[in-house]
Amino acid sequence: MNNGFPQKTTGGIKRRDFLRMAAGTAVATISGVITPLVIKVAHGKGKLEPFTFAYISDAHLYAGNPNHRFVKAIKKAVADVNSLNPQPDFVFFGGDLAQLGQPDELELGKGILSDVKAKIHMMVGEHDWYFDMGRKWREFFGKDVYSFDHKGVHFVVLNSVIVKDYWTAPNMTPMERMKAMAQLDNPKGEAFTVGEEQRKWLKNDLSKISKDTPLIIFSHSPLYKYYRPWNFWTDDAEQVQEILFPFEKVTVIHGHTHQTVTNKIKNITFHGLLSTAWPWPYPPQGIPKLTIQMDRADPFNQFDGCGDGRVDILSSGEVNKTYNFWDRNPMEVTFERVSKETGSETPGPSY
Amino acid sequence: MNKNYWLIISILVLVVFTFAIFISKAAQFEKEGNLLTVKSCDGKKTIFVEGFKEGEKMSKEKAQVVANLLMDLIKICNQEVIAKLKEDNSVIVLNDASLILPDLKPGKTPVLLAHGGQPHTKKEIKLFESEEKRMIDEGYKVFHDSSLGTNGISCDMCHPDASNTHAETYPKFQTQLKKVATLREMINWCIENPLEGAKLKHDDPKMIALETYITSTRKGKVLEPGKH
Ligand SMILES: [Fe+2]
Ligand SMILES: [Fe+2]
């Protein structure tokens, strides 16, 4: 089934050692070459201290069964990031911790993530939000929109899953509202937005930042228009991008798409994150040309096409992003490859 | 006047009225701009020839086209066909037969989309379509319903819009099943594994519904059994 490019083992080196090696090594990469589990940020005029953070995303937890396959999966990711040596500066969670926004799902996730040794930064996804409009999530994890600075990079976490009110008029219960949102292929699904209020906030937040400071923006939905029927989409993406264009180095990292996906619009580079729970097929159209597509997953292997990853920030402020597949070779998308803006040379899925 | 008299009058009126409708229906076709009308010898096929008025003589070429068209029509069905042969020799079917003669062209034998030489009635076609749609809709529901399994997961979570289900590639060899598997076996595999549910009998209405929905999303795709 998967005789496309990502093969299973990395000749001779055990995966865990491989991760360790990679995390400790400065990255020299040939474009499109597959390397290990980190998103590397920062690279500019060689003035930053390079650092690494790891990510876990889209766990989609159900409560009630400690042996549920999705529970096993997020625990695997926690073990992964805890085994990184040296440890990443922090771990970022990309949203969709819960499947149906239930308090016990969020609580389960909070408990599992509390085992992460490094500091953790959280982002909200639509599956966390639409049962109680983020009440429980904020109680557990704090603000859904915030920014912080780390080693010369300015990080912003957005809540990009805001949609028009579709529930009041038809008198939906919280669960009906949640389920309508949880259905990816819902033909009546409202488009995600960042919204005017947050765009204002963002403008203000960035007004204190010099234009040569590397920016890393986290959003759950891709901050561009990819595929509307599945809400791989942010409706006011252009307006948000407009706020980011004046900055020299901008990287957007998003969850929600459960697949390898890379895009570049002007000076903004966009990276997707893997899900721990399940991979998504590519939609029939709209796939950004820089994307190295992952092959179709093996339905006989729960972990195939899933994983976690890391981001390496180089001294220049540029970012190398790594998808750490659990049962395939990792895939590194280097800033060099992205800056060449060449289309994918590797074959996509078999069809 | 007595009651019987009234009854006879009303029946008479009704008969005349029905007849008038019948005549006007026929006249509707006849009216095609006073065109030259050619009928087959059995009287069941009528062709209005554009570019020629009633009574006018056709060119030899045109006469040949008309003759061929009539022959074709007689060969393929014994239904009544009323058609117009346009100046550019394209053909428009004017009556109900257009349902079964969608690509009628002179020089090209028309395809008859009917069984046993008899066309499907509009009613039949409606029934086929509505029954198919009912099953697709039912399948859509099952596909989006987590109660098919035991762990809260539903098919659409991994296959939005039934993507990557590839009905047109079945039956095909599945390495892990060690045999050529049918679509229904693969559906059952996904029920038992990602959904941790109990597999369905192959003739279970839910199975048929799932198959109908999944397959409907690949309508028009080339059949490629065995493709990976
Ligand atoms: Fe997700
Ligand atoms: Fe999401």
From TrEMBL, chain A:
Name this polypeptide is given: Serine/threonine protein phosphatase
MF GO annotations: hydrolase activity
PANTHER family referenced in this protein's UniProt entry, alphabetically: METALLOPHOSPHOESTERASE, CALCINEURIN SUPERFAMILY, SERINE_THREONINE-PROTEIN PHOSPHATASE CPPED1
Sorted UniProt keywords: Membrane, Transmembrane, Transmembrane helix
Transmembrane domains' residue ranges: 21-39
Ribonucleoprotein listed as a keyword: no
UniProt KW ATP-binding keyword: no
UniProt cross-references to InterPro entries, sorted A to Z: Calcineurin-like_PHP, Metallo-depent_PP-like, STPP_CPPED1, TAT_signal
A Pfam family it matches: Metallophos
Ranges for domain Calcineurin-like phosphoesterase: 52-259
Domain of life: Bacteria
TrEMBL record, chain B:
The keyword Disulfide bond appears for this protein: no
Database matches in Pfam families: SoxA-TsdA_cyt-c (PF21342)
Keyword terms, alphabetized: Heme, Iron, Metal-binding
Stretch forming the signal peptide: none
Molecular function terms from GO: electron transfer activity; heme binding; metal ion binding
Annotated Cytochrome c domain residues: 146-220
InterPro entries linked: Cyt_c-like_dom (IPR009056), Cyt_c-like_dom_sf (IPR036909)
UniProt cross-references to Gene3D superfamilies, sorted A to Z: Cytochrome c-like domain
Superkingdom of the organism of origin: Bacteria
Descriptive protein name: Cytochrome c domain-containing protein
Native source organism of the sequence: Candidatus Schekmanbacteria bacterium GWA2_38_11
